[in-house]
Write a structure and sequence with these properties.
Elements lengths: L2 E3 L2 H23 L1 H8 L3 H21 L4 E3 H23 L7 H31 L2 E2 L2
Antiparallel strand pairs: 1-2, 1-3
Helix pairs in contact: 1-3, 1-5, 2-3, 4-5
């Protein structure tokens, strides 16, 4: 499996993705009871989403400290972020939920963040390919 160097650009993207993930997860996990009436989203959604996001954020933060990553692993992060955005879009447009305006903004922020980090991680893959910067496994 080919590896790519963790450039300063990629490291910053991973740090930002991991930090935002952990902070958002803490808000979702610790504030689910407070957020539920404000967002008009189920508390269980906050708890499950927060748990997944906490694990993801910690993993991405750890990966940011490595010197190289398998290309397939970075592709997995891109796919995760796209899936996250897609899942939150499904929740935003699901007929069985009626989120408040603040809830819609919350969901929209997750969609935008997922798409943004997927794009930035994809850019790192493309930059590595353009430079031919493969690192031996």
């Amino acid at each position: 499996m080919s590896h790519l160097s963790v450039t300063p650009f990629l490291r910053n993207v991973l740090i930002a993705d991991g930090a935002m993930g952990v902070v958002t997860a803490l808000v979702m996990l610790l504030g689910s009871d407070v957020l539920q009436p404000l967002l008009q989203l189920p508390a269980w959604l906050m708890l499950v989403g927060g748990a997944v996001l906490a694990a993801y954020g910690l993993l991405v933060g750890w990966l940011s400290r490595r010197g190289s990553l398998p290309r397939g692993l970075l592709w997995a992060l891109v796919v995760f972020n796209l899936a996250w955005a897609f899942d939150f879009a499904l929740v935003a447009f699901a007929s069985w939920l009626q989120p408040s305006a603040l809830g819609q903004a919350f969901l929209g922020a997750h969609i935008v963040a997922g798409l943004l980090f997927a794009q930035l991680q994809y850019m790192a893959l493309q930059r590595d390919r353009a430079l031919g910067g493969r690192v031996p496994a």
